[in-house]
Amino acid sequence: MAVELKHLQINNTNIPVIYENNSQLPLFFIQIVFKGAGSVSDGKELGISNLTSSILNEGTKKLGVTKFSEKLEERALSLSVGSGFETMNFTLSGTKDEIDNALTLLNELLSNPNFTKTALNKVKENTIISILEKENDFDYQANKGLKEMIFKGTALQNTSIGTQKSIEAITLKDIESFYNSYINLENATIILGGDIKLDDISQKIQQTLKILPSGKKVEIANIQANDKQGTKTIKKETQQAYIYFAAPLYIKDLEKESAILKVASFVLGGSGFGSRMMEEIRVKRGLAYTAVLRLLPSKTYSYTHGYLQTSLKNEEEAKKLVSEVVDNFIKNGITQKELDAAKKYLLGSEPLRNETLSQRLSSTFRNYYDNLPLDFNSKVLKEIEKLSLKEVNDYIKEHKEIGKLTFSIVSAN
């Protein structure tokens, strides 16, 4: 059965439900996604969304993390909370005969999270350790520096994990305030699938979620990547250079442009071996083990993002070559051979990305979230199949902004 869009009424709030009935295995998958509960809403309390999701993985105040985890384990259930840039999600899965118990435990977590000083101190300590460890993760540092430049003045310039100073300053009251502000029905979407019928469990889901406040709908403003080119070099004790780069990507109509964007991204640097970036930087010149550059479109923000590692002596040459590859790509477009190879790969591999139930549900939710048709993936494949070389190259030549590259480099130089 295809994935469908349904709705549930909970406390007079209309909640969208992404649903697929699949009886191949006696399993269920439920995810509650809260728009606006991600790091986009951190404000000055950098890392609070990530910290809130961490403490929500510490069980309930009544049971604590150990006993709550034991309750899940004895019924072979999985319940986890994760935070992204725009959303926070509660993911629940297990065998279908345990779905009642699963929803009961989810209700307990939502109504009585372990918002205690002990749990907060634990997750704060773990988060600060992670932050300190990332000081020597040079890929992370280069990408962090890049985001600070390309998305300066926006929520994306900050890391989702926060800083040691910001984490230390967050209080239990801050966590509770963030949770109460963003975990609500107005911003919820339910993703549901497996060997279950929505009609059979809709009342149980309503009982599970009715404890949540209605709240206010969150609107996330579009974020524009910075077109002011620049280079930042971060000095570290390293034996090689970590080069990260990005540029704006202007999208007028995501639905109409997605097929061409997939092909262009594949050829430019998103396909690994065979891509322009890999061919010029690794195959022809041996400057890097891998070199990637992808066009990343979305409803909220779109940009071009890439990276490579090279020896210190080849840093300048590699950086210069990245710009040359992109400039040539804009000027001359792609070849018929490259278009044919992109079509063959994309048409053959895309269906494999939707093999599992969770993959299909997540993909459909992404389409729904981006205001695209639920079956958008299959429509894109049909559009890719029909694309002509002229259509692709005309589009590429219009997007000169992808040549306005900003670089962030971790180097010993």
TrEMBL record:
Gene3D superfamilies for the chain: Metalloenzyme, LuxS/M16 peptidase-like
Residues of the Peptidase M16 C-terminal domain: 170-345
Classification via InterPro entries: Metalloenz_LuxS/M16, MPP/UQCRC_Complex, Pept_M16_N, Peptidase_M16_C
SUPFAM superfamilies: LuxS/MPP-like metallohydrolase
Domain Peptidase M16 N-terminal: 36-163
Coiled-coil annotated residue ranges, if any: none
Designated name of the protein: Pitrilysin family protein
